[in-house]
Amino acid sequence: MPQPKDRIPEKKRRGLVLVLTGDGKGKTTSCLGMAVRAVGYGMKVVMIQFIKGSLHYGELDGAKRLAPEFELIPMGKGFVGIMGDALPFYVHADAAREALAAARERMLSGKYDIVILDEVNVAVRLRLLDLEDVLSLVREKPENVHLILSGRGAHEEVLRLAHLVTEMRSVKHPFEIGIEAEKGIDY
Ligand code: ATP
Ligand code: MG
Question: Which of 79, 94, 142, 174 could form a disulfide with 179 if both were Cys (CB 3.0 to 4.6 A apart)?
Fold first, then answer.
């Protein structure tokens, strides 16, 4: 069990804004990796997922093993405009706005050390969210909270507010030779 002395004193912590973007694999799994790492110190982590929410992924059950320190909350409605999506655009947009409001509330609650917005960059790019609303949330981040924004195609303005930006670059992906998504690796 983590001891109180192992916790990073909150007044000393400088909360960072981290952005994981690019078209290579590893953005969401990097978020999950940081959650595993932080839970090891007894830190509280919440990961809100945009767009995702209609399919099952291994991390939904993996996250339960890290409860109550780690909460993973899918708040999307699935693929937008592709893969047989039959939902009107406004349904996706309403879900994304609700997810952003939920993230903001948790970020400001004082109960979390790390707040992760998974696929939020994609939600902005698809115009499910107003860029300005995401920028406002980043600017409102309490000093001691780490905020992580993932998803390909992050907006330039989001990058400008970040302390760390990593762009995953695909060099090779099995998808290119017809190998489909793999359990435990991709989902
Ligand atoms: P992961 O969840 O594995 O960390 P990711 O978050 O970086 O991936 P997303 O853009 O969210 O990637 O896409 C999710 C899915 O798309 C994953 O199953 C991933 O393997 C797959 N994927 C990622 N990069 C590529 C690529 N360059 N070509 C094809 N599929 C990809
Ligand atoms: Mg992802």
Answer: 174
Write out the two tokens for 162: 């970040």
Query: Whose alpha carbon is nearest atom 31 of ligand 1?
Result: 25
pLDDT category at 117 given cuts 50, 70, 90 is very high
The region of weakest confidence among 7-21, 33-47, 116-130 is 7-21
All structural domains of the chain with their residue ranges:
17-169
What class does CATH assign to 17-169? alpha beta
Give the C-alpha separation, 89 to 93, whole Å: 6
- Is 24 touching ligand 1 by the criterion CB < 6 Å? yes
Contact status, residue 138 vs residue 100, Cβ threshold 8 Å:
no
Residue 185 Cβ contacting ligand 1 at under 6 Å: no
For tokens 């995702």, the residue is: 52
Q: Which two tokens stand for residue 85?
A: 């999506």
Which of 19, 23, 25, 173 to probe ligand 1 with, by most ligand atoms within 8 A of CB? 25
Q: How far apart are CA 15 and CA 141, in angstroms?
A: 8
Nearest residue to 151 (alpha-carbon basis) of 124, 123, 187, 122: 122
- Ligand 1 neighbour 27 (Cβ under 6 A): yes
In the block, which residue shows the tokens 């879900």?
95
Residues shown for the chain: 187
